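Rotation project, supervised by the postdoc (A.L.). Task for the rotation student: set up a whole-complex structure prediction and record inputs and outputs verbatim in this book. Inputs entered:
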Amino acid sequence: MLSSDFQTHPVFKRGVAPHIRLFAYVAICVVMMVADLRFHYLTTLQDWLSVIVYPIRDIAAQPANLIGNTTGYFSNLQDWRAEKETLLQRKKEDTEKLLFIKELEQENDRLRGLLKMAKRVKTYSVTATVQYRAPDPYSRKVILDLGARELFDIQDPTRLVLDQGKQSGITHGWPVVDTDGLIGQITRVYPIQSEVTLITDRNQAVAVKVERTGQPGVVFGTGQGQLELRNVRSDPDIGPGDRLVTSGLDGLFVPGIPVATVDAVEPPKVNDIFPRIVCTPIGGVERSANVLVLSRAELPPMPPKPETGDPPPPPRPNEPDEADEED
Amino acid sequence: MQLSNRSTRILQPAKRWFVYLSLFLALFLNYVPFGDIPWVPDWVALVLAFWCIREPLYIGMGTGFVLGLIVDIGHASAIGQHALAYVVLAFLANTLSRRIMWFPALLQALHVLPMLLAAQAVMVGARMFAQPGAAFPGWDHFLSSIAGVVLWLPLTYLLLLPQFQPVDRDENRPI
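Outputs recorded:
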């Protein structure tokens, strides 16, 4: 009998050995994770998968929405009254400020013209709703109901349009604020939804300045709901109660958005020169349901090219998403 | 097919569409937003482990990989994170399936607990390796495996329900 006549009986056919398959799958998974987390590749795959997943996820969120809606419906009338009172009060206060703001804006423009300074950055914003908190326990992220598909008009941002043209869609890197202050930054845009990394995430950094003194710095999330102002020396007077606002030095965020209040300044440890400055976010990070996505109407000018061979000083905090935004 | 290899009752073979339907329903349950509660079980891992033990010939690492990718997208975690955990889980469950099938359901649960914990540990380790700044989610994160194991016994009977049907249907007997 020729050896080519011999065939394995199908009962004994089991394909590639399980150990080898395990090794191959583990290798693929690890490569994918590193490619995604460190280099931000695989966005096309994510887009495709997110479109498939979206309907399932939407239906799965319905029971929670139903419970939320019914408890909201039967909630105390007094709560609603109190909320209405605070809103009215706030509206009164805001009206007072708004009366003067128009005049101040014009005055500012004139003065800036006289001093030949650059015009103030124009911004536009879209409202969005936080759908849910991303269940990933390693980071602090929420999912918004706005995506790349929802394009809007730069002139009239409240109007959503659904065709390409002069309009612009949500892009990653944009700041997300609520009525009180900054809550996060858009880090990933899916066709229908987008993902916001909250400022309390451990990998999120925001360029800020102390409102009172103008001292610049970078604030980092701690992963436990607090923020930390790092690498700022203790001799400039920063004390509890100081407000931190965005400095706009990162070229993405509009200057002046409230970020955090300083809680405590702990003196530096023995081997350290910088004090530990703990801050609490001003905005309702991890609580807000209705948020605004802000953007600059035009991109900031590119940083000047260095003429000598020296490398330029790093112009912005070490944040991968912002580096992507520049191209 | 039997309830365990010691049981004398012979069950009907599992229908493939039912296997895939149960995996899909588990996926659906995984997407229900539970907020921060740590003891919500990972339904996909649980059902996947179940079918990897019961049907090792056609539910295995490939199924785990695909399901893992879909869960990763829904949870906004790194792509490949759940896939890695499910592949490891499927491998362990497939390899140990011959042994586990000799035990009654309660003792099977004891075998499943280290598998689920190992899958979670692999996930935590891989995430910390791939992203050095990632926060450690805390020890109560592992409560989800324990919650899953508690559900093993009811889940066994629930998922085997269609196989308890008699071969010749009797109009007067529901199951």
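Student's summary: Residues 16-31+40-163 of chain B form one domain.
Supervisor addendum: The interface with chain A takes residues 27-36, 38, 60-61, 65, 68-70, 73-81, 83-84, 87-88, 91, 94-95, 126-127, 130-131, 133-135, 137-138, 141 of chain B (CB under 8 Å).
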